[in-house]
Amino acid sequence: MEERLKPISLGQGQGEKAKKLIEEGKLQGYWIFLQNCHLARTFMPELEVIIENIPECFNVHEEFRIYLTSMPASYFPVSVLQNGIKLTTEPPRGLKANLKRSWGNIEDAYLNGSTKREPFHKLVWGLTYFHAIIQERRKFGPLGWNIRYEFNDSDLDTSTQVMKMLIEE
User: Fold this and answer.
1) Considering Cα of 56, then 57, then 62, then 67, what sign does the dihedral take?
2) What would be the CATH architecture of the domain defined by 95-168?
């Protein structure tokens, strides 16, 4: 895909070049990579309109993709964030603390008490990781959630017990 990837670093005066690249990419199936969107404050409203109109466009190549990178910026279009897949390079602040607390509450005897020790350890790790992510996600409020549910420590304990019972069967 290297020959199909078309990167452009946004900044002063790069908005027009980016628009042309996006139009070309929609027709040719390029992967457009707009870097440093936070540096193109005046281009952000135009980008929002471009992104919103992509599903309605005719002749959009099925392999067309658009990737954006940005530092946190208050002027970055919310609709672009809501309609895209987001990745971050730093974990939520409380994730490590949540994991430590969850693992500290699980006794070694309980973990080693399963006849299927290795799969049980892996499942417990995955469940505690899921629990920590859900706990962190609560801080964002209703954004991304239909129904508010905490998945608290008692839910984690119950889930672990049920999981152990099922794995033993």
Assistant:
1) negative
2) Orthogonal Bundle (1.10)
Alpha carbon distances (Å) from 104 to 40, 98, 108, 109, 111: 46, 10, 10, 13, 12
Q: What is the pTM of this model?
A: 0.56
For CATH 3.40.50.300, the residue range(s) in the chain are 5-82
Query: E-assigned strands of the chain?
Result: 5-9, 31-35, 65-68
**Mean model confidence pLDDT for the chain:** 88
Give helix 117-137 / helix 95-104 axis angle, nearest 10°. Answer: 140
Identify the pLDDT of residue 44.
93
5-82 — its CATH code? Answer: 3.40.50.300
Q: In sequence order, which residues have a C-beta less than 8 Å from that of residue 144 and are 6 or more positions away?
A: 137
DSSP string for residues in 32-43? EEEE-GGG-GGG
44/83 Cα distance (integer angstroms): 15
In eight-state DSSP terms, residue 106 is: S
Over its C-alpha atoms, the chain yields an Rg (Å, rounded) of 22
Q: Per residue in 91-130, pLDDT tens? A: 677 888 999 999 998 999 998 989 999 999 999 999 999 9
Q: What residue has token string 């430590």?
A: 100
